[in-house]
């Protein structure tokens, strides 16, 4: 089979979904993980447990709740459709929202543990220098946890590309709208087109490996540069 | 004048203590805070910096930093702080560590010149030695031209030679910038060289507040020498007993009579003094 005659749309859709989800989650998770790393609030374990739920919940449970919350039968779904004319399920918007829930812990946890490794005295030195918490986050904390930021971004991206259950429940399999690579592979297997399933799977495998390899290479390089190893 | 009258509950290693410190510190003076670990020295420094809460009052000149209703934010207090572990911004070069505090390039250049760091200004902190790192931290603390400089055991991680060099630098910066400096230290020679006043804390209370000479020189009456040490061994040699005593970094042997050998045991803290003899000094 000619590689150029392949339908790349599911891949493009997967990467578009993953990119959008990663960007949105980065800006949501950054302040939350910074706060979690610094706070002594008693509610911290409660918030940590809630943010980690998507790791342990079966995608079908998460998918069911999100589907229920976003459909026209719920207040949220009805509000968006009546006010803005936006449907939140079985389209790309719904996929992005669902992915944000599903991949949330993969962004928060590496960032939070990264921030927790920053020497408290260094942050205090920045406050003493007259800098606000926001300036300290931007100029001191973030540049010192580059490997953690990269890990968070890449893992979130890769995890979203690898989504299947939640995507299927919220988006179904609409060509060019919600049929991402993982769903396309599932459909090839279902109709027993193993050749195509092989090709699609191999492409996913290759891309995932290259992405992870570059993260580890970067982290090794960064540690060497700042003199950790 | 700095007026301090603060209280704070501390959770000590054994039980809770109530840190209660009432102090007046003259402007431009150099004060050393000393005492055993866990006596509240660092906490007092951190309260002055605004890094920890406390109740009471802190007044610096005419400005109120802390009273019962308000606490001035750490960012707004006129202080420089040097941490024991340097706490440099690892992602910034030496010069950028200074310029992050204030964009005053002339001041940064001047400070780097004074501390012989000009050649290293583009290096990252990870490539510097301990002494160089602590000098960068010292320069950084002065970039705000603070009124009050707080030093938390700044030289304890350095070797003796580097410590003496940095003591001189601290002293000349203290004078040049007309600072009021408060330094936590365990090192008697360092305290004696730098501080004109020594405050000793024990269990979160001030137990002594006097000049360095009064606090550190322990000779009484006609004693010529007096050292404090710890008995680390007692050996019997024929009819004599010999106690091995550790004094600072050195070990000495002292002969004990029979009665003394029964009176003391290993681990006892003792004072060793002599009266009538003339000491000889030899260059090393």
Structure description:
The complex is a heterodimer of chains A (229) and B (284). By secondary structure, chain A is mainly α. Chain A has helices at residues 9-38, 44-56, 59-70, 75-83, 92-117, 120-128, 133-144, 146-161, 165-171, 181-190, 194-225. The longest helix of chain A is centred in the C-terminal third of the chain and has 32 residues, at 194-225. With 284 residues, chain B is of the alpha/beta class. Chain B has two domains: 2-216, P-loop containing nucleotide triphosphate hydrolases (Rossmann fold); 225-274, OB fold (Dihydrolipoamide Acetyltransferase, E2P) (Beta Barrel). Helices cover 26% and strands 34% of the residues of chain B. Chain B is built from eight helices and 14 strands. In chain B, the strands form three sheets. In chain B, strands 6-7-8-3-9-10 form a six-stranded mixed sheet, sandwiched between helices. Chain B has a four-stranded antiparallel sheet with strand order 2-1-4-5, with no helix packed on it. In chain B, helix 2 runs parallel beside helix 4. The radius of gyration of chain B is 22 Å and the shape is globular. The model of chain B has no long low-confidence stretch (mean pLDDT 89). The interface between A and B is medium-sized, with 18 and 26 residues.
Topology:
The complex is a heterodimer of chains A (229) and B (284).
Chain A (H helix, E strand, L loop, with lengths): L8 H30 L5 H13 L2 H12 L4 H9 L8 H26 L2 H9 L4 H12 L1 H16 L3 H7 L9 H10 L3 H32 L4
Helix pairs in contact in A: 1-5, 1-8, 1-10, 2-5, 3-5, 3-9, 5-8, 5-9, 6-7, 8-11, 10-11
Chain B lengths: L1 E10 L4 E10 L4 E6 L5 H9 L5 E6 L2 E4 L12 E4 L11 H8 L3 H10 L15 H13 L5 E5 L7 H17 L3 E5 L3 H7 L2 E6 L2 E6 L1 H5 L8 E13 L2 E8 L2 E7 L1 H6 L5 E6 L10
Parallel strand pairs in B: 3-8, 3-9, 6-7, 7-8
Antiparallel strand pairs in B: 1-2, 1-4, 4-5, 9-10, 11-12, 11-14, 12-13
């Amino acid at each position: 089979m000619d590689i150029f005659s392949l339908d790349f749309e599911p891949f493009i859709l997967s990467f578009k979904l993953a990119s959008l989800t990663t960007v949105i989650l980065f800006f949501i998770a950054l302040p939350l993980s910074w706060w979690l790393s610094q706070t002594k609030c008693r509610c911290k374990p409660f918030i940590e447990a809630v943010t980690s739920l998507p790791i342990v919940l079966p995608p079908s449970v998460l998918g069911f709740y999100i589907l229920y919350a976003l459909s026209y039968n719920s207040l949220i779904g009805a509000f968006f459709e009546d006010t803005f004319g936006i449907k939140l399920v079985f389209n790309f918007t719904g996929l992005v929202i669902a992915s944000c829930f599903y991949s949330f812990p993969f962004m928060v946890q590496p960032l939070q543990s990264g921030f927790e490794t920053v020497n408290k005295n260094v942050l205090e030195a920045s406050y003493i220098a007259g800098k606000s918490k926001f300036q300290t986050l931007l100029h001191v904390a973030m540049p010192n946890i580059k490997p953690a930021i990269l890990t968070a971004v890449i893992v979130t991206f890769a995890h979203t590309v690898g989504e299947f259950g939640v995507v299927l429940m919220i988006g179904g399999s609409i060509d060019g709208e919600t049929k991402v690579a993982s769903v396309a592979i599932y459909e090839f297997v279902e109709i027993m087109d193993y050749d195509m399933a092989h090709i699609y799977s191999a492409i996913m495998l290759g891309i995932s490996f290259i992405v992870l390899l570059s993260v580890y290479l970067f982290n090794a390089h960064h540690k060497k540069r700042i003199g950790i190893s | 004048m700095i007026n301090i009258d603060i209280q704070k509950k501390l959770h000590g290693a054994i039980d809770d203590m109530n840190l209660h410190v009432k102090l007046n510190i003259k402007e431009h003076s150099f004060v050393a805070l000393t005492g055993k670990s866990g006596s509240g020295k660092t906490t007092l420094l951190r309260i002055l910096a605004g890094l920890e809460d406390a109740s009471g009052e802190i007044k610096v000149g005419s400005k109120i930093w802390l009273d019962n209703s308000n606490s001035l934010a750490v960012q707004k207090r006129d202080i420089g702080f040097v941490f024991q572990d340097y706490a440099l911004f690892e992602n910034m070069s030496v010069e950028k560590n200074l310029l992050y505090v204030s964009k005053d390039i002339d001041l940064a250049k001047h400070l780097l010149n004074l501390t012989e760091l000009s050649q290293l200004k583009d290096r990252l902190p990870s490539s510097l030695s301990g002494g160089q790192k602590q000098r960068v931290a010292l320069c950084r603390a002065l970039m705000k031209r603070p009124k009050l400089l707080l030093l938390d055991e700044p030289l304890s991680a350095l070797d003796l030679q580097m410590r003496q060099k940095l003591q001189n630098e601290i002293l000349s910066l203290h004078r040049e910038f007309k600072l009021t400096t408060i330094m936590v230290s365990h090192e008697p020679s360092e305290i004696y060289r730098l501080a004109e006043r020594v405050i000793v804390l024990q269990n979160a209370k001030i137990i002594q507040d006097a000049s360095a000479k009064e606090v550190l020189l322990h000779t009484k009456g006609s004693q010529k020498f007096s050292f404090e040490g710890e008995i680390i061994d007692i050996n019997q040699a024929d009819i004599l007993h010999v106690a091995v005593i550790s004094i600072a970094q050195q070990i000495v042997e002292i002969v004990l009579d029979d009665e003394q050998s029964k009176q003391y045991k290993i681990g006892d803290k003792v004072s060793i003094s002599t009266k009538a003899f003339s000491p000889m000094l030899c260059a090393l």
